[in-house]
Design brief:
Helices cover 36% and strands 26% of the residues.
Length: 335
């Protein structure tokens, strides 16, 4: 059973609570509203609200499954897709994505995050980053992720320690030494490399790559739909409000070439790699996001401005369409 191959603790989603096999092609969304949006946007048939039983909510997140229609040589075919709410932030993803992995009906398991993100523009000279200026409604396919992840660190057995030289004012009775911290960091990095993680050159953040199979499929799918997408690096942050200053964002753009910032994908990509390396599950991850605000530049949409809100909604719908078509492309290539 898949649940035995990918270890999970507890039962937090209806996928696990009901003991059902779920589609191996999965679109992951942070928002509870997105699975419902996908039903109409993707014109799904055979829709099942997997989180509803006897009229009551089951599990802690919204899950919809259905059949997505595509053409194959003039013949109508379908693939089954799961659209699942992951919740917001990497700690939530560490639970929900793992459970979606554990109940997948076969291989390869392809998980595409179709979400929203903040665009990051340089504060002074846009040419420094050699990236396009981003605005509300733009679409970005992330090929790599940079950021922090307490979820990843704890999975790999690393807990940041306070030493006498870092926070002496706290006056710990038995603080560990800098040398002990160094050993822990080195041990952590050995494990991290195994799962496709490495530190940035300055040692400030972790970084990993989204799977090329998925990234290429997303870019190709957007082109086939006649939609423009940018491609580049993503910053996955731990705190929505704590890492949002214009100065910090501009630094990310200049130093690391970051184009967008969100809160989940670094861990998404890690879990897919973990599934492959540690548990022999062919799992792959990628991300397409709609820019719903940019700094510096266009702020977040005004809820009272219908034009801006519709622009955001259209971009979110487009991420779902691109993700679904990318899954079809991968399905054709794998079969």
């Amino acid at each position: 059973m898949w649940m035995k191959q990918f270890p999970i603790i507890g039962q937090h989603t209806s996928a696990v609570l009901l003991g059902k096999k779920m589609p191996k092609y999965q679109i992951l969304c942070g928002s509870r509203l997105k699975p419902e949006m996908a039903i109409k946007t993707l014109k799904l048939s055979g829709v099942q609200h997997e989180d509803i039983m006897d009229g009551k909510q089951v599990g802690r997140v919204s899950i919809v499954t259905g059949k997505y229609r595509f053409d194959l040589g003039g013949h109508i075919k379908y693939i089954e897709i799961l659209i699942g709410e992951t919740g917001m932030g990497q700690s939530s993803v560490d639970i929900t994505q793992a459970e979606f992995l554990s109940v997948a009906s076969g291989e390869p398991v392809v998980q595409i995050r179709a979400g929203t993100a903040g665009g990051i523009n340089s504060d002074k000279d846009q040419k420094i980053a050699k990236r396009p200026f981003l605005d509300l409604g733009d679409l970005v396919v992330a090929d790599e992720n940079i950021g922090h992840s307490g979820a990843i660190e704890q999975r790999l057995g690393y807990f940041r320690k306070v030493t006498p030289n870092t926070m002496p004012q706290l006056g710990f009775v038995n603080p560990i030494s800098d040398q002990e911290v160094k050993k822990e960091v080195e041990a952590f990095l050995v494990k991290a490399y195994k799962y496709g993680l490495k530190p940035t050159l300055d040692g400030r953040f972790l970084r990993n790559m989204n799977d090329k199979l998925v990234t290429k499929a997303l870019v190709d799918a957007a082109g086939n739909l006649g939609l423009d997408v940018s491609q580049g690096a993503n910053f996955t942050k731990e705190s929505l409000n704590g890492e949002a200053s214009e100065e910090f964002m501009a630094m990310l753009r200049k130093r690391y070439g970051i184009m967008v910032s969100e809160m989940e994908q670094l861990t998404n990509a890690f879990l897919a790699k973990l599934a492959r390396v540690e548990h022999g599950i062919k799992a792959y991850s990628g991300m397409i996001v709609a820019v719903i605000g940019a700094v510096p530049g266009h702020g977040f949409p005004d809820p009272n401005n219908r034009e801006q809100m519709r622009k955001q909604e259209m971009a979110e719908e487009q991420t779902l369409k691109i993700a679904a078509e990318a899954l079809v492309k991968i399905h054709k290539e794998q079969n």
